[in-house]
Design a protein that fits this description.
This protein is of the alpha/beta class and about 375 residues long. About 40% of the residues lie in helices and about 25% in strands.
């Protein structure tokens, strides 16, 4: 569950990848049963159908042929009414079973055009199989033979569908949503990479609230609160505080800042469970995580840096090389995979973290300005 931005608009995850795959598989099997002893030709309506077509024919149980035509009717988020044929039918379809694969049927203007295009092709049968259908806006008296899912009249993107050419490359379907009010950034990287230093600069520059889970836990430890005592028993050994404790603590920190323009999360999320919880929490508030910006520095440089910092920071976990190595081990085994988690959402931005503080800030800013 997450929110994404495409051009000037925001979209909230609406149908998961798994759900779409299940629907497509069911359609392929259903249609396969209908044409057991035939070789139908599936014609995809480009551009939107390409993912649907690819998944559909892989699930299709029998022989089949594949072709495409290209039509266009949409600009932005509403139909222009006029449908143009950009790439037409270029093979003989006489006597063939033709199944049209449409990504989505909305007003039905495109469908009407499809029926017109195929009316003089002498096909044996013409069938329509659309993945999505918006019954509330459909205006035509035309048959649709297979419908994957009926959905409300809200603009969607993903899984081949676009908003002004963006969004086709997402595996899930996203639905138009209101503009989030905040800018939320995860500042990411292994221990000692400079997250704290950069966060302090960036929070002033972008007027954001900086939440460092490590700093908050250390503050509780200093005041010897219940939470502090619990956290200490893990942190002193370079271990992670359990996810549920960290997530509750983080959410209560966010709640303390209802007027924030956004947050810089530093040291959170640290595990996939935390990342999923953060996505869910922000999405429920109508907010998104704009991106994960990650500082990248070679590990040996970091160990030296942390030992240096340990001389003045007073942090037990900064002074002992074995503990530092253990923190890296924890990072590699439990945290580093978050890179994949955010890459899948097209939200991971790696930045060279070696150099002057000011240079690194400007590298970070180049990314953050565009989020
Ligand atoms: P129709 O001609 O109004 O039925 O619209 C069909 C075409 O409009 C589809 O093939 C899509 O290209 C586009 N379209 C309709 N609804 C949506 C939507 O919610 N998201 C993205 N494209 C859409
Ligand atoms: Mg289309």
């Amino acid at each position: 569950m997450s929110i994404i931005r495409l051009h000037d608009k925001y979209f909230k995850q609406y149908i998961s990848e798994d759900k779409i795959q299940a629907v497509v598989k069911k359609m392929a099997q259903e249609i396969g049963r209908e044409y057991q002893n035939e070789t139908p030709i599936f014609i995809g309506i480009l551009n939107g159908c390409f993912m649907y077509m690819a998944d559909f024919i892989r699930e299709y149980p029998g022989n089949c042929e594949v072709s495409f035509v290209k039509l266009a009717s949409y600009t932005g988020t509403s139909s222009t009414g006029a449908v143009k044929q950009l790439v037409g039918v270029n093979q003989d379809l006489e006597g063939r079973i033709v199944v049209i694969l449409e990504d989505i049927i909305d007003t039905g203007n495109t469908l009407e055009e499809i029926y017109k295009i195929f009316s003089d092709k002498k096909v044996k049968q013409l069938k329509i199989a659309t993945l999505f259908f918006k019954p509330d806006v459909f205006r035509k008296e035309l048959p649709i033979d297979h419908i994957g899912m009926s959905i409300p009249d809200k603009f969607i993107v993903g899984y081949g569908l676009d908003y002004d050419n963006l969004g086709r490359n997402f595996g899930a379907i996203y639905q138009l949503t209101t503009k989030p009010k905040m800018k939320n950034i995860v500042l990411f990287g292994p221990p000692g990479v400079g997250k704290g230093t950069q966060a302090a600069i960036l929070k002033a520059k972008y007027n954001l609230v900086h939440i460092s889970t490590g700093d908050i836990f250390r503050d509780h430890i200093k005041r010897q609160t219940e939470l502090g005592k619990l956290a200490q028993s893990f942190m002193d050994y370079g271990n992670f505080v359990p996810d549920n404790v960290t997530i509750d603590m983080l959410e209560s920190e966010i709640e303390k800042n209802p007027d924030a323009h956004g947050f810089i999360f530093d040291g959170f999320p640290r595990t996939p469970t935390q990342a999923v919880a953060l996505d869910k929490y922000l999405t429920e508030k109508g907010e998104l995580l704009n991106g994960m910006v990650a500082l990248e520095v070679p590990e040996e440089t970091l160990v030296t840096r942390i030992l240096e910092r340990g001389k003045t920071s007073g942090r037990a976990d900064d002074q002992d090389e074995a503990k530092i190595r253990h923190r890296f081990h924890e990072y590699h085994t439990k945290t580093e995979m978050l890179k994949d988690f955010y890459s899948e959402q097209h939200k991971y931005f790696g930045i060279n973290g070696v150099g002057l503080v000011t240079d690194i800030t400007s590298r970070l800013s180049q990314v953050i300005d565009n989020l």
